């Protein structure tokens, strides 16, 4: 059935109907869980299909005149084992109307005269930058379909388009590598070249081109940005005479791994001037209404070797005709700023901030001071996009139990209008409410998290606790937000308390200072986990003897560090991690990874610095593991993950490792997501609730897991 004709949530046997049947037939699950499940009788039950096939809005784009909003919706299908993206148009006076649906649609923008939108999508048999009619969805290429566009921006008057392209690999490069071999360059190649069997050096340097709509001609600009390896952002000045360019420069040992520079191209003279060439990231440059100044976010002119992993950032203003940027002094300390823009008066700045509690738009005087939220409350507002006047914006609104919707925001008043209802079925599905918690660890460092408790749980009733880490906010939570492997709400529905936990803010350290680095990324986060468990045990929420932990990516490192340096967890799951093990120094094959490990451990796992690896590396501390560990990986990170797996197997520790062939860093194939979420649900119920699903198809799974007990 094509996605356009599928019901919002295809019928399937409700999860709890199956669960209640199991409870009547089996006595392994504690009686307390039976009471919890019976407490939700008469309400719709969440299923894994509901989680996987929910509609996710992305890229809201308000028209320049502020009257319409275009947006994309991504939806996965278990039947098709694929995801599709659809393009929609909505106004405050009419429901959303679908204009297109494809396997992939990206880079959505409005044409400045409000006549249509542009996006990269299939057109005439090729994926290209296309113009899409807002009347009937008809599409036609904007540029030559053979041109590969990685980024583009319309000029304010709609007369021109600036875009980024690059030449692809030389046609015979792969054949030459196959026949003659390749000189290995660890600044270019890495483990993915081995696992993917691709030895191309990739495309050439990025090129900035300006296309004139009237004449159809194209000119190249910015040729003197010779050290740009990629271009991340373009911004036209309101008068159309200048173009700001944010780019990644060629790597240097003293640069941050996330370094980005900003330059300005004067389109009248085609000359390029640097705005900022600091050693760390400078992001999100936007022009002032008078085209005279740029505002951007940066950690500042610091030396990353002195402050490695610095996350505190601020706003800077660069003013024509040049000179050093001026810092905007703020009363608050901000982390992970991505940029700002001037408000419509030119006297204030607007910026979107995700602070691990909520995301919202904030306003601050351009001269500095204290910021205030444009929209009060605790709901999560993100992806703001402004009309030409700067008085209205489109955004995405959501909360822990509120599915995401597109909203139209009045910037002056902070009032908003809901424009869509993309997931109506969730209004009748029982979800555990999320409660934000804040606490300080024994070192005095604060963090937060969101606690879900089983529906029907009585006050003082202790439940097994699961900690999931990291990077959460007050966002819609069915799975663990961005993590597609952990069904947070189904954990809660199955009788677990679930804490979606953020770790404390990074504390920048001097390059090679192992004590400070391991405190920032290991000791301090673990102290916050231990305090969270103590806090929830002491208030009667959690059972100390049944505590599990899981995490993805960096969260996998936090998980594996925790189970090798603490005994508070009785079960664990980690995905796509493998960080901070000694073998990573060689097996990744990349200079950038050695640079990071030198920064963390003080050098390679040899000589005097070997003891630092022995202190922190999960693989070197595998003998201390008592918690059964489930590990899930794709083919690339999976190779470097084998170090801990091999050590646990050698020591007879309970571990199971699953490889998902051809999977990206975060699982996105519906079948992978289904298998992973079901596996994690089964894993923690097996170890912490002594429960086995009687489904005959899972008999081999439980036989393996029972064998791990011995």
Report on the structure:
The chain is an alpha+beta fold and 710 residues long. It has a domain at 3-52 and 428-708: 3-Layer(aba) Sandwich (Rossmann fold), CATH 3.40.50. The chain is 21% helix and 32% strand. The protein has 14 helices and 37 strands. The protein has an eight-stranded mixed sheet, sandwiched between helices. Strands 17, 18, 19, 20 and 21 form a five-stranded antiparallel sheet that branches. Strands 1-2-3-4 form a four-stranded antiparallel sheet, with no helix packed on it. Helix 6 links the parallel strand 32 and strand 33 (497-501). Helix 7 (514-538) crosses helix 8 (554-565).
Question: Which tags fit this structure?
Answer:
710 residues; alpha+beta; Rossmann fold; eight-stranded mixed beta sheet; five-stranded antiparallel beta sheet; 14 helices; globular
How is this fold's topology laid out?
Blueprint: H1 15-25, H2 31-38, H3 48-52, E1 56-62, E2 69-77, E3 82-91, E4 94-102, E5 106-110, E6 116-123, E7 126-133, E8 139-141, E9 151-154, E10 160-165, H4 173-180, H5 191-196, E11 207-212, E12 218-221, E13 228-236, E14 242-249, E15 261-266, E16 271-276, E17 282-287, E18 293-298, E19 312-319, E20 326-328, E21 334-335, E22 341-342, E23 348-354, E24 359-365, E25 372-373, E26 380-386, E27 392-399, E28 402-410, E29 416-418, E30 434-440, E31 446-452, E32 463-469, H6 488-493, E33 497-501, H7 514-538, E34 542-552, H8 554-565, E35 571-575, H9 584-587, H10 591-601, H11 610-616, E36 629-633, H12 635-651, E37 655-659, H13 670-689, H14 699-708
């Amino acid at each position: 059935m094509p996605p356009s004709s599928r019901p919002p949530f295809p019928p399937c046997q409700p999860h709890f109907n199956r669960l209640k049947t199991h409870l009547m037939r089996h006595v392994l699950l504690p009686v307390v869980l039976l009471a919890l499940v019976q407490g939700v009788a008469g309400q719709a039950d969440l299923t894994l299909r509901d989680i996987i096939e929910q509609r996710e809005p992305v890229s809201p784009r308000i028209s320049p005149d502020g009257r319409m909003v275009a947006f994309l919706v991504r939806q996965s299908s278990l039947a098709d084992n694929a995801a599709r993206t659809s393009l929609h148009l909505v106004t405050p006076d009419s429901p959303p109307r679908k204009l297109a649906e494809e396997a992939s649609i990206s880079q959505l923008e409005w044409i400045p005269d409000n006549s249509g939108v542009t996006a990269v999508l299939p057109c005439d048999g090729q994926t290209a930058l296309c113009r899409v009619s807002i009347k009937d969805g008809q599409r036609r290429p904007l540029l030559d379909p053979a041109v590969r566009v990685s980024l583009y921006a319309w000029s304010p008057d709609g007369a021109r388009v600036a875009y980024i392209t690059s030449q692809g690999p030389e046609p015979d490069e792969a054949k030459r590598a196959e026949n003659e071999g390749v000189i290995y360059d660890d600044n270019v190649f890495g483990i993915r070249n081995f696992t993917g069997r691709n030895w191309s050096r990739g495309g050439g340097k990025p090129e900035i081109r300006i296309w004139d709509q009237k004449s159809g001609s194209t000119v190249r600009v910015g040729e003197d940005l010779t050290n740009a390896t990629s271009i991340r952002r373009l911004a036209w000045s309101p008068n159309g005479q200048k173009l700001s360019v944010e780019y990644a420069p060629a790597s240097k040992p003293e640069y941050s791994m996330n370094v980005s520079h900003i330059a300005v191209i004067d389109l009248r003279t085609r000359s390029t001037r640097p705005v900022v060439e600091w050693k760390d990231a400078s992001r999100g440059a936007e022009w002032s209404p008078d085209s005279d100044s740029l505002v951007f976010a940066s950690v500042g002119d610091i030396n990353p070797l002195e402050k490695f992993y610095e996350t505190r950032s601020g706003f800077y203003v660069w003013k024509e005709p040049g000179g050093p940027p001026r810092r905007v002094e703020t009363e608050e300390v901000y982390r992970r700023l991505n940029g700002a823009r001037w408000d419509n008066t030119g006297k204030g700045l607007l910026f979107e901030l995700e602070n691990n509690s909520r995301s919202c738009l904030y306003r601050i005087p351009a001269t500095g001071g204290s910021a205030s939220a444009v929209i009060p409350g605790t709901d999560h507002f993100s992806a703001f996009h402004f009309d030409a006047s700067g008085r209205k914006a489109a955004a995405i609104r959501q909360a822990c139990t509120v599915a995401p919707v597109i909203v139209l925001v009045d910037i002056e008043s902070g009032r908003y209008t809901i424009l869509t209802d993309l997931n109506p079925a969730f209004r009748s599905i029982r979800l555990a409410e999320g409660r934000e918690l804040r606490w300080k660890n024994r070192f005095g460092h604060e963090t937060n998290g969101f606690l879900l408790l089983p529906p029907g749980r009585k006050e003082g009733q202790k439940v097994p606790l699961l900690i999931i880490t990291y990077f959460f906010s007050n966002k819609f939570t069915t799975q663990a937000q961005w993590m597609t492997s952990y069904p947070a709400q189904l954990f809660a529905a199955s009788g677990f308390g679930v804490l979606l936990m953020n770790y404390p803010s990074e504390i920048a350290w001097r390059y090679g200072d192992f004590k400070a680095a391991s405190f920032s990324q290991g000791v301090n986060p673990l102290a916050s986990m231990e305090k969270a468990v103590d806090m929830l045990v002491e208030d009667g929420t959690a059972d100390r003897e049944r505590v599990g932990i899981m995490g993805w990516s960096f969260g996998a490192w936090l998980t594996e560090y925790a189970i090798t340096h603490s005994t508070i967890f009785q079960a664990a799951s980690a995905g796509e991690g493998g960080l901070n093990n000694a073998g990573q120094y060689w097996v990744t094959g990349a200079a950038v990874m050695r640079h990071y490990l030198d920064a963390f451990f003080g050098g390679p796992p040899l000589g005097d610095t070997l003891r630092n690896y022995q202190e922190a590396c999960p693989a070197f501390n595998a003998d201390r593991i008592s918690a059964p560990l489930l590990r899930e990986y794709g083919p690339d990170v999976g190779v470097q993950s084998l170090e801990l797996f091999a050590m646990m197997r050698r020591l007879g520790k309970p571990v199971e490792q699953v490889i998902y062939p051809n999977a990206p860093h975060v699982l996105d194939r519906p079948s992978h997501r289904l298998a992973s979420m079901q596996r994690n649900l089964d894993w923690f119920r097996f170890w912490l609730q002594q429960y086995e699903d009687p489904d005959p198809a899972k008999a081999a799974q439980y036989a393996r897991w029972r064998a791990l007990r011995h």
